Amino acid sequence: xxxxxxxxxxxxxxxxxxxxxxxxxxxxxxxxxxxxxxxxxxxxxxxxxxxxxxxxxxxxxxxxxxxxxxxxxxxxxxxxxxxxxxxxxxxxxxxxxxxxxxxxxxxxxxxxxxxxxxxxxxxxxxxxxxxxxxxxxxxxxxxxxxxxxxxxxxxxxxxxxxxxxxxxxxxxxxxxxxxxxxxxxxxxxxxxxxxxxxxxxxxxxxxxxxxxxxxxxxxxxxxxxxxxxxxxxxxxxxxxxxxxxxxxxxxxxxxxxxxxxxxxxxxxxxxxxxxxxxxxxxxxxxxxxxxxxxxxxxxxxxxxxxxxxxxxxxxxxxxxxxxxxxxxxxxxxxxxxxxxxxxxxxxxxxxxxxxxxxxxxxxxxxxxxxxxxxxxxxxxxxxxxxxxxxxxxxxxxxxxxxxxxxxxxxxxxxxxxxxxxxxxxxxxxxxxxxxxxxxxxxxxxxxxxxxxxxxxxxxxxxxxxxxxxxxxxxxxxxxxxxxxxxxxxxxxxxxxxxxxxxxxxxxxxxxxxxxxxxxxxxxxxxxxxxxxxxxxxxxxxxxxxxxxxxxxxxxxxxxxxxxxxxxxxxxxxxxxxxxxxxxxxxxxxxxxxxxxxxxxxxxxxxxxxxxxxxxxxxxxxxxxxxxxxxxxxxxxxxxxxxxxxxxxxxxxxxxxxxxxxxxxxxxxxxxxxxxxxxxxxxxxxxxxxxxxxxxxxxxxxxxxxxxxxxxxxxxxxxxxxxxxxxxxxxxxxxxxxxxxxxxxxxxxxxxxxxxxxxxxxxxxxxxxxxxxxxxxxxxxxxxxxxxxxxxxxxxxxxxxxxxxxxxxxxxxxxxxxxxxxxxxxxxxxxxxxxxxxxxxxxxxxxxxxxxxxxxxxxxxxxxxxxx
Length: 867
Prior knowledge:
elongated, alpha+beta, 27 helices, single chain, 867 residues, six-stranded mixed beta barrel
């Protein structure tokens, strides 16, 4: 209660320091006059009385200083005094200040930039109320090797009505929708949800209302909520937009609400719609993501136990559709940001931490050299009564001032770096739109700056304050640390070792990128254009007509239609059960990826057909369903046997399909992922809403996009064409995470290499400057340049060898943590270790050679005359 008034009084007293000094001087004058009068009454002459009073009182200046030391907040006055002195010292040495501040700005700025990413993506809570109570609920089936899968709507209804652990359960699914507003149609990102999702997430619309329970039903679901972005872009932020009709997927909808700009985790979503038709799916149709809010006081473990028991009950009630299905609960935050993303970001944060350590070692080395130059100044201050603690405090304050200036510059570096990251690398990260230099990031930068200042200044200041005063007072003495080079050598070795670690990590990621770009994908990605269209009617006649139109365009070699092009996020799978003799028992299955394709797909993608035939327009399913399997699935089911004519049951049951062909394996989802069991279904038997057109051209396929858009418009002017990309673009997108990590690590490694070279250059320049007299004498006695150069380089060579050896040992341990990030190369790849060691050795030897060569060319007369 009395803390604030007391602090206020102390601050007032500190700010009134000048009046305090006047009052103290006046009080001391009165004391002296009283003592003088007493001495005079004792019989002393006035002059003798004054001298006796002064002797009894003591040194006036000393007494005043002791009184000042007892003032409130005296440390604050000393600190400001040290800061002013430090600023004067830095202004007298602008070269040293500029190099030190720039070095720290790079280290602190890089750490601040990466921390801002970690803060937004991992540390900051989800932008929802009580996010720790939000749980993502998925279905699992261990018998079918399914660890996480979407839920069916009937199962969701059973969970919602029969469980008691949840305050609310809601279902969502992300998709796309065609919006016809104005002249040109648009393909937008959409989210379909049950009416209780927004209340459960504690989200409210900015205008209008949310969805009503009755609007979950088919026929009542033709309402839509606009995102703030779409409302401003397409409707000009019209406040009267509510109730306006718009066309979504060819059907009229009514706008009932507008979302706010900060609408939870909406991200790039443009439209929000009720589930509608998805509420009528079968129990074995898994399409929904379920989110639950736990009741207050219910743990996730208790809810998981209840949901598992409920899943077993549902399995008994529906053994055909729910055999083997269970439930898995995951915190919503762990779904938004996966463990792989967390691991990569923390690895980058640790890597940039090594860069900061290198910068700290570099600045500490600079301060050791500077302390050598200030030997006489420190000796004089010590001789005048300055205690060692006072000297250390002054030097640490100067170091702290340097680090704070470097931190301020580092924040600017981080701000610039984030602009670069957003444009080039970080758009694929979850919550990327939340990355910013906020208060927590600034606090981190400030804390790092303070710690850096103390770390870089404490050891050099302790060394400098231990000066032999007599030696320091000698005329021309400027060699405070001569003979004490062990500390500087240790710092340089540490810089080199940490640089090896960063260089090796960057080299391994570059080798991974090279392997990914040279990976055999199983198809030819060159000269292929992919684009998506979502027709509103029957897709089969539409895409048949579109394929014929595009095939007739000049420069088109082959055209095919597929439910999902390779190297996209399209990921659908079914359990394939063998029918008849097979390696796998009839009761077991193989989880397999599947696609719908037309006949030209394998020719357009240049996927080899190993056995049998491809689809024809006659494969409509009327005379029995047919499939084409890849080599992996054929081998897993029938070994070396002939698969042609064998039958399988995708999904189980009596729905059989006959194998008519075997094609080569492809890397379907990522160049880093091995081929997986896959099968293809005939596009002539049926297609779903959104399909992808795959066009192989004679040359660059990008020029075909306008003509293809024209053909789509000719068939249906209400349909947008979207996701127009070349296959090479898709491949590059799939390796974007590895490219981002590699780019950042290379940047850190280059900075580390530069700092290490500067560090060893500074050490060699300092060492050679101390041996100027020796070099002059040796050259005067007839030594050749090579004879002088050898001893000068020997110290640098030993440091380089020690740093490289230690760095290789450290890298062998650190790079093992990268095992999950590497493809086609091991964490102890000898080529990478050898190249990085040679690179560091070459750069640092050059840094050693320059000052040594300069010293070896000194004129002997000039060197000896200087002495």
